[in-house]
């Protein structure tokens, strides 16, 4: 049971931040990568007593199978490696949409992580895929859809140039996500990250490598403010 | 004279993006660090024909003196190392404000760069200084002012922990700026940057080291959307 | 048999420092990661002739099974990946306790390594889990327990901010342990390490990434001095 | 004037943590490197109203001259690049002493920073200089003095091997300080730091490169506990 | 005097590769940065006996003044920091031209180094300046001129995205030069270099940071082959 | 179906650049490493409607088996990990040849990737293997064959010295490919890359680590120009 | 068959340096790690026609089994991961011996690689194991044996301090080998390498991480000179 | 006065290792870079009581002037930035010579540091300058002189390829010295160092960047053994 400070232990391995949904508008999101299935089950069960929305990131298929067998009301998004709950997918809570733009086919897992997060947080999503800068007319072919978005998330690996180009074409908040796609001197995404941080288009902000979730959380936070009056 | 593509050369060293203000809402901003005074004078003069707003970053005092002697209507902000023009400071164009929060006295130059940029772009600013996490009650003493902002910019060097703590306390878009303040293993800001990218509070986005301008540009872009109805 | 210099060979692969317990107060601790089961068995057997306390770190379950089958009196701590011996767990040898504080559920293995080491060295332990800075009231909910400790060990991955915050709240010796938990730019713990070394709270000292054992050894060494009169 | 939260602004550039001395036993220490003389003067003047002990680190001779001309009661320690105040040097507050051991003549500035800090915090200091491992009998010639200390601070640049060797010889808490002394692949102290973090002697803890102050603060904190009964 | 192996010593500090012009088509080029004026004068004098073409790179204005005072027939290119000789500038030796494209005003020194080298090697040059990707219509405004070149040199600092975009638009050999322009995480050009090596447009090759000379030498070598029949 | 912008989607995961062959002379090349077999099959099928030439790099044997079972007309090159199609191998389209020179037996996979790419693009290839600089007479034994090439590709891991030596002996365009062969401080090819970028022979250009394809694409682009009249 | 330049191809994947034994005193040594069993068999067979001494390094047990089944006269050294041939082990060819000193049990594989190489090259070896600096009396217990050697090889991972200490005690040529043993900030041996390069004992030279073979080759080369008259 | 342990303090800043000359054959060498003139004078005066040979490295001209004014019998080698004493230059103490080979004119300071050290230690030196691998016939022109040496020191910056090439041509102990000469990705010598550590010629050993002294000390130590009978 949560104590008066809004804190509730799960056995001896976790301390849930029960107040978080009230304080910040969305419950604690669970990072699944370094936790055991048993720990994730315990956390999910406890959270089901406090919230109707659960988001677990970086859950592989094997863990997902074990968890969904134990905890009712969860849905596994295989491309995004995410578990969501409890119950049916939420409806958009506000007008407008967020564009999730990715440079290559290989960046899709990260794009899906962003899209599922956004939908859980009540934003509508438009997906634009495989518009990297080496064939730049592909980007122009989708430019209107991007320009009409309230917020843009730009995802790219390798040389990470997509946000720089977009930043010069689109007058909307733009969040860049470097991915670990590439090889050799790509350094598992560090070059893409560096390129995004050093882009000459002003106003692009950046999140950690492969962090589709973080970009989506930030985008939803902007979206909520933008559309609070609607 | 700008050609039909909205491009205008300045001698043989620059190609102004004249359409930018119409396309993106703010004219090209000039990065002063690697340009000569002569180049900056040439660019400022040419821009004065096309816009009433000029922003030059990373201009040291010596260059500033030469440029203001040649180009009328410029104002030098010594703490921020910036030149703005043309004419008097702009008035806030929308309601609300942006909180520019910095962890230590040494981070002030970057905070000033952010504040001047925001004011040039029409946003009101509240400055909160020296509230680093090693004396965390200082932060709590200013928390309400931060929570009421439309967007928060959090600036910190050394271990860069301020955005993580703020991200768990404030439900607003939060942009983190690592600074190069520190020594030894601080690696001129790389550790602060890394800490901000790896923060466990979701939704924090990050810009380049010492890039107060970039954070402000992104914040203003969010602010414009948020308050577009006013 | 140990020669006059207090040195005893184990076959041709090890040279035990037999005098160590007398010289430093605790026998040689065996790092298990890069040694074969056969080597570890040989070392354990030889040490059983000289000491009643054995500590082996970084021993996985498979090796542990082989070793405990050969050497009597050993106990395997699965969460901590450690073997201890010989015989029952030692009792606390002094008053007071050491707080082992960790930021997230994923840091538990390192916390357990620290706790088992401390108990083997005669110190009582209080475990405080999942109090990372992104939900800082969780930390405040446990603050008194931490403040009453004789020494504090603070364990965190990702942005490694916990020791900085604690260092401003607690007036006790504080040892920080970065963990390799995280991804992308976390660089397997290098960012957490860097943040801890650059923390603005004075007096925090740091050990190697994931080195729960080393932090505990240092903490016990302080604890022994602090409570030598009891 | 400090408000009820124990926080007091100095103009618009600093926010003093007035409660710190009561909370943690020593007032806020001022890092001088990135602050202007004017800021340091303002901070020193304000602190003089609240405490009789002031410590400013990384103050070069030029700044020191300006500050001592304005603020009475300060003393400049040129070798250590520190300012202390207010009034005469404090007397040892407890029995025993701390050994400040350094590997080479070039490490002296860091050793002096540690020694001045310790003396300000009430601990007696023994200085042992130029006992690096390449002439290891020099270390043995001073070993008894080191062994009798309550805490040992070991300072070394280049290959940073001194703490490893000491850690196998001395059964006391041992804090290592890497210095930036060296060239080429020394990487301004990163190799010494790395060597200290990877030392095979257990129980050595480490602080940032050249951070004599931080090591001393930690050592004094241990010393206070050790000798609290005397 | 050159010996039979085509090798000629200059005092005791250099060994000229006299045969190089015959063997490779262009005499040895002298890297001026780490040589004294006296050494450069000695080398220039000796080379004047063997060739009518001299190229010295990275010669600052002070050295240039001393050298031109001693060695007749040299010309100093201040923007490019180069000395050339002997006599008047050479005429184009073949048809077609090479496009030297640079992303920003700050990249001009490197662009000039490339252009002077190309002209010394007999190729005609078209300079296209300030066409970085953040205002991509500036690039399209110059695209035909670039497409008609025999070889393209693309120079950019910061995020280094120009070659990727050009590589998808232009079917000619394309050599990319990263520059050290930028700050913070730009790492003095390493990010631009990394981005160029990881670009998704195939067929872009890269030279060292700021190495305008090397790119020009490679481009001239291609140009010679391309136009060998004319 | 491709729309008017020359862009054609493949389900929701790819956007083919159909115009590329017309625009740049060769169709889009598919990087297979991070794509699933299903995605590669979809892409290959769609491309078969638009081009007679298909090149897929980094396809392992398991994926290749699945793809060739579904898509007719493909050929798998096991040493090069490449799929080519559609139909029989193309004939040389121009005179002369390209020398693919590699330093060691272990560099052969990269050399084969380069050779297959060149042949697909219509250039004849001469392979020269195992002529690393530690037995430099092996290189001299093959020097005439290298000198007669139109373009030279030099492939080396470890210390990456081959291009520097070749660059001083051969007056032809020379493209260097670092490989990830080596261990310890080789840093998976970063040292070889660095050595190639810093080579003192002018005019060598470099591609990403292990990027035999990229070097070949650049070489073919030069070759086409060189032999356009024949 | 070897041509007149002393070069002999093995199929299309290797070019043997047949003259090497005559030129340098020992035949080509084969690095087995990145070669297939088939390639190693081909090379071994061809070399058997030219030399009575074969050394293959980094051959795992599976490859070794395949190779020894095909090529007669080879012996596999499992601890050292080496194959030697042809026939019985060679006898020492000169007086004196080389000391192979290693810091820990985990460094044994590298030590064995050094020892087997030395014996193949005709030098006698004394092995001294587990004498790391954290229990420095273990080293003193073996010091006379080390001092009497003609050359000393010192092998250590982690903080790599052994060569610095030895360098101050022993007046003989000393070659240091860093190993990849360690974890966290050990960076797979880079810290040990850095410590060895920055050691304050003069005259220590260093080889690549884990390169026991290279150190032994260098030591044997010195030994040959030292004892050439005997 | 030296105590019984062979240790003598110089004021409070140094502890001379008086026994070193007897123990290791050469007195302590003083690294001058981070010491003040006053400290160097104190050390030199004290050493003059114990030895007739003094070597101080990294002493700039300004310090040298102050020191030679105070301490009689010293000689300053400006190119090598070294002070030697006391009295006239020593004569060769043994037959044979050591070849100091450097790749470029810019590497001369390091070569001189090596040569002066060798002469002080009693070895004769042959200097071979500017024989880098990009004009490899220059190296062949000097090859016999190198082959006849007892030990070879190979010095190179940039890509550091000289030792690899020499290692395949010369059957003598070979010590490589990377220099910080280069720019951009040369990383102040780290690439040259890496190339030398990864060279495919066996038996090359390496010292720290720019460490001509260390290479010479090691070479002299080998030379002494080689010629001990003469």
Automatic annotation (TrEMBL), chains A, B, C, D, E, F, G, H:
One GO MF term: hydrolase activity
Region forming the signal peptide: none
Record-annotated PurE domain positions: 96-228
SMART domains registered for this protein in UniProt: AIRC
GO BP, sorted A to Z: 'de novo' IMP biosynthetic process
Gene name of the record: larB
PANTHER family: PHOSPHORIBOSYLAMINOIMIDAZOLE CARBOXYLASE-RELATED, SLL1489 PROTEIN
Protein name listed in UniProt: Nickel pincer cofactor biosynthesis protein LarB
